[in-house]
Amino acid sequence: MGCQDESLVQKVCEIYDNISNLESLKPSKDVNMLFTQLVLTCMPPNPIDVTKLCQKVQEMRSNLIQLCGEAEGLLESHFSSILGSYENPLHHVNIFPYYANYLKLSLLEFTILSNHSTNIPTRVAFIGSGPLPLTSIVLASYHMRTTTFHNYDIDSLANSQAFNLVSSDPDLSSRMFFHTTDIMDVTNDLTDYQVVFLAALVGMDKEDKVRAIEHLAKYMAPGAILMLRSAHGARGFLYPIIDPCDLRGFEVLSVFHPTDEVINSVIIARKYPSPRPLPAINQGLSGNMKFPSKCCEIPCFNPLLHGNMIEELAVEDQLT
């Protein structure tokens, strides 16, 4: 580990210690300051592989991801309650401090999806929608205006808050549904969706997330698309990292690593038909591409969003 990496890890550990000493993770001046400091520390592109750091740092990272998830949930619940007090909550959704990030992330995900699917899906599932389901709201409002969204969350209060946000909107209230259940208990219903989104905080550690992915691989319809959020580099201190090799039962189509204020990486994959076919070349953003094995990944710039992404794809036939 180089000096720069050591400095980064030390800084993250210091912030973790301060967060661990907080009496509460509910939004407050101190909480907001520390998590902003943490995000700004981890945001710059960094090739560090946080999964290979020493055991002590791995334990700290695991605890930190749990704390980030708890704080994020409390922040969303706080703002969902505020928005829910308005007569038309969705008219005020921009008061959420990270709303602009959701606009960018949703546009990115829709653009990636459009490059691998010829039709806008009619039915979509979003797993882990939470009390402030901004991805579903943004996609339904701006990008998928005829699509029905089925939002799954294990927390009944979160679903109640989320429903309250869209209930006064005649269009969205007719196209957005909320299911309170553990996704691991959903089986045959998963075949109804052409696209399934898996939120970054569903499965707070890699083992739980892999189990969720395996469940989706078992019950999703053959050929259906999985949109998965992960993390890359130092951002792996904030969210679990999923390697494409973990998506057994799926053909990984593309992996995108944002380098701007959008923190989450995006993986798009297609469930294999049964039986699994031989690897095929997929049409990507820049000509004929296929997803490579880990040892031959070629990083290149993705033209989406002014080139502020890194795209991990191997170019089969380089366009000139």
TrEMBL record:
Give the GO molecular function terms.
Answer: nicotianamine synthase activity
Q: Which reaction does it catalyse?
A: 3 S-adenosyl-L-methionine = nicotianamine + 3 S-methyl-5'-thioadenosine + 3 H(+)
Keyword list (alphabetical) reads:
S-adenosyl-L-methionine, Transferase
Q: Which PROSITE patterns did the record assign?
A: NAS
Highest taxon of source: Eukaryota
Record-level GO BP terms: nicotianamine biosynthetic process
Q: Coiled coil where?
A: none
Catalytic activity, EC: 2.5.1.43
Q: Which family does it belong to?
A: Belongs to the nicotianamine synthase (NAS)-like family.
What does this protein's UniProt record list under function? Synthesizes nicotianamine, a polyamine which serves as a sensor for the physiological iron status within the plant, and/or might be involved in the transport of iron.
Q: What is this protein called?
A: Nicotianamine synthase
What organism does the UniProt record list as the source?
Kingdonia uniflora
User: What taxonomic classification does the UniProt entry list for its organism?
Assistant: Eukaryota, Viridiplantae, Streptophyta, Embryophyta, Tracheophyta
